[in-house]
Design a protein that fits this description.
Elements (H helix, E strand, L loop, with lengths): L3 E5 L5 E3 L6 H12 L8 H5 L1 H19 L7 H12 L3 H18 E3 L1 H12 L3 E6 L5 H10 L6 E4 H4 L7 H10 L6 E5 L3 H9 L3 E4 L7 H9 L4 H16 L5 H27 L4 E5 L3 H15 L4 E5 L3 H4 L9 H11 L6 H5 L3 H7 L13 H13 L1 H10 L1 H14 L7 E4 L6 H10 L7 E7 L10 E7 L7 H6 L8 E7 L2 E6 L4 H7 L1 H21 L12 H10 L2 H8 L2 E4 L2 E5 L6 H10 L7 H7 L2 H25 L3 H23 L1
Parallel strand pairs: 1-4, 1-6, 4-5, 6-7, 8-9, 8-10, 10-11, 11-12
Antiparallel strand pairs: 2-3, 13-14, 15-16
Helix pairs in contact: 1-3, 1-5, 3-4, 4-5, 11-26, 12-13, 12-25, 13-14, 13-25, 14-25, 16-22, 27-29, 28-30, 29-30, 30-31
């Protein structure tokens, strides 16, 4: 019959606010490099404190292993090592040691589920003890435990006893002290080696506590920024939310660990900028503004910010074509530049019936939908830019929709002063210019707009003041970022008057798809991250937790390092594709679909890369080689245009060899 229960302390009963233990040293490094009381400490030690602190512990542990039969090191030994190596005074050494102790106490948080289990065992009259391999002194561990509501339990600490779990000697020592047989003992801890395999080898009943693991994107961020205290706190915040909400589901955890860190930084920045610029009203544009407004409203409430927020229904479909009037020559030119990216659908881009459009086009361009050579493409573009009759036709066709859009905007936007701005996510900037064009009918000032700039190419502003939040050195990821800001409703198609009020006409969508995916849980996870990181921000005021650089690794991960789990989460989001609002963004691909794509180049996916990551390895290989073939064709076209045929032959030969290797090695 079991008579004794023992629990590991760290990452089983208590944990830290930072991502990993070394995060404490990252916070120390930040403080000693900025605090006046540490000015007299060796500059090399301050600038590289993390490295020297971890090296001192490792060095002392190695000495103990060779001389004292695997005895634990102590905090005093570690700082004595640093003192001797950098010729510190006793006072300087004590300052550093006290700083580490203070930060350990400041960072400790409880793991409630195991503390509750201890309380239940005690209520049942069971014996419970605590064990840990730890260099911190016992009085500090007791303070950490007390802070987390753990009192009155016997503690066996390696730094006190001098023996360690990892060598099994601490378990042997406890057996004698507690007069217990191994078979009547249960040990619980999170370390597979010291808390499971070692005690199991002694016939102790061992249980592994399932402590949370870092996500792939968190591992990348940690590994690339191990010494960055802000990164340590950012990841630690998300990790501990998962720890406290284990049963909340993957969408909740995705919101708190991925969507939250990216979007919080942007919204925190725009609220700060709005206050500095005297902006009192923010209009979040649908649908990207749905999640952003939730974040802003929460931050405004908890920080008592004097800014009002509104949700403005708008879209490319509702604003772009209606924005064109006969005086919109510059906007029309931008519109054509944008439209010619997909000139085969020119009639849809210009919003005119195909037969009507042909009345305005020279005969040589009537076959535009089947494709044009380079010369005709250039001529068509020049014609569209120079011919005002098409602009006039568009303006006349959409004059009623323009009137409706202007009426809705005039009704929805308070223009009594210029202390207002719009919030958008990403794009070319054309839609913002269209908004300004619509507003000129009732507002004469420039339109202010906050903008998450991850798209490298964008149009010159026309009567718009853009305030950019930069995502540094990223490719065009606007469509992927939009996945992180989904709304439960369809896009705005236009506006209609009802009971003397203008209301948006929304595209019909099956809300069950969004509900099934878990949008509400996702948003709840984001808001939980915002709540917790704001608390971190107040406690660690010396760390910049909403830097524009912090989301960089996450956004880069979307483009290059995506893992299967994240691809499944993002790829399964309901997304508008080819006019279908009820379709997955990047569905998993089967073999027949992949083969069809290989021969036709057609695939029902908005992101082939994401679909590939979600799919079987063989499918991924087929998609990759097809994509490589498409890229090769584009490159060959440019090469032949410049008459570099020998270079083209080398490219073709290399692709044929690569493809044969793929067929024989990776498929057959």
């Amino acid at each position: 019959m079991t008579t004794l229960y023992s629990f590991e302390i760290f990452d089983t009963l208590i944990t830290r606010k930072v991502a990993v233990p070394v995060g404490i040293f990252a916070l120390m490094q930040e403080i000693v490099n900025s605090g006046e009381e540490y000015l007299d400490i060796n500059s090399s030690l301050k600038c590289n404190f993390i490295k020297y602190r971890t090296a001192a512990e490792y060095r002392q542990r190695q000495l103990n292993n060779s001389m004292n039969k695997s005895k634990e090191v102590t905090l005093n030994q570690i700082y004595e090592d640093i003192k001797n190596n950098f010729f510190l005074t006793d006072l300087q050494t004590e300052k550093l040691k006290e700083l580490e102790i203070r930060l350990e106490l400041d960072n400790v948080i409880p793991i409630d589920e195991n503390i509750n289990r201890i309380n239940e065992l005690k209520a049942q009259g069971k014996r419970v003890i605590l064990i840990s391999d730890m260099y911190l002194p016992e009085e500090i561990i007791l303070k950490m435990l007390e802070k987390c509501g753990i009192n009155g339990l016997k503690l066996y600490l390696s730094s006190t006893v001098g023996l360690m779990k990892s060598s099994s000697e601490l378990f042997q020592y406890i057996k004698k002290q507690e007069n217990i047989d191994f078979k009547d003992w249960v040990h619980i801890g999170e370390n597979r080696f010291t808390d499971y395999e070692i005690p199991l080898g002694l016939k102790i009943n061992s249980e592994i506590y399932d402590y949370v693991k870092l996500k792939k994107y968190e591992q990348n961020l940690r590994d690339n920024n191990i010494e960055n205290p802000a990164v340590q706190l950012l990841i630690g915040c998300a990790k501990n939310i998962r720890l406290k909400n284990k049963n909340s589901g993957e969408k909740y955890h995705f919101g708190s660990s991925f969507g939250g860190p990216i979007l919080y930084s942007y919204v925190s920045w725009l609220l700060e900028q709005a206050q500095k610029r005297g902006i009192k009203r923010l209009y979040f544009i649908a649908r990207d503004g749905y999640v952003l407004k939730h974040i802003a409203d929460y931050l405004i409430e908890i920080n008592n910010i004097e800014i009002e927020t509104f949700y403005l229904y708008g879209s490319r479909k509702a604003w772009r074509l209606p924005a064109l009037d006969v005086q919109s020559d510059i906007l029309y030119k931008q519109f054509i530049e944008c439209g010619m990216w997909n000139f085969k659908q020119l009639d849809k881009i210009l919003g005119l019936d195909k037969n009507i459009l042909k009345l305005f086009l020279p005969t040589q361009f009537h076959g535009y939908s089947k494709g044009l050579n380079r010369k005709k493409f250039k001529q068509l573009k020049e014609f569209l830019l120079s011919d005002r009759t098409i602009l006039e036709k568009i303006a006349d066709t959409y004059k009623d929709k323009r009137k409706a859009a202007v009426s809705y905007l005039k009704q929805s936007i308070d223009c009594t002063d210029d202390n207002f701005a719009f919030v958008d996510l990403d794009g070319s900037g054309l839609t913002q210019n269209c908004l300004a064009s619509l507003m000129k009918d009732f507002y004469c000032g420039p339109v202010k707009s906050f903008y998450y700039c991850s798209t490298p190419a964008f149009f010159e502003a026309i009567n718009v003041e853009r305030y950019y939040y930069y995502s540094i050195k990223q490719e065009n990821l606007g469509s992927v970022l939009e996945l992180l800001t989904k709304a439960p409703h369809g896009q705005t198609l236009g506006y209609e008057e009802k009971d003397s009020k203008w209301i948006p006409v929304l595209e019909s969508v099956n809300e069950e798809f969004t509900k099934k995916w878990g949008l509400n849980e996702y948003v709840s996870g984001i808001l939980c991250f915002v709540k917790n990181i704001e608390e971190y921000k107040k406690q660690f005021s010396y760390i910049n937790l909403d830097s524009q650089i912090l989301p960089e690794e996450y956004i880069g991960f979307l483009n290059t390092g995506l893992d299967k789990d994240t691809a499944k989460l993002l790829g399964s989001i309901v997304h508008s594709y080819m006019g279908d609002e009820n379709f997955e963004y990047a569905p998993e691909i089967n073999f027949f679909e992949a083969v069809g794509y290989f021969f036709t180049g057609k695939l029902r996916s908005a992101n082939v890369f994401y679909s590939g990551v979600r799919s079987h390895r063989l499918i991924r290989k087929i998609l990759e080689y097809k994509q490589g073939h498409l890229d090769l064709c584009k490159e060959l076209f440019n090469i032949f245009i410049h008459k570099r045929r020998q270079q083209a032959y080398i490219k073709i030969l290399g692709f044929r060899i690569s493809f044969r290797h793929f067929l024989w090695k990776d498929v057959i």
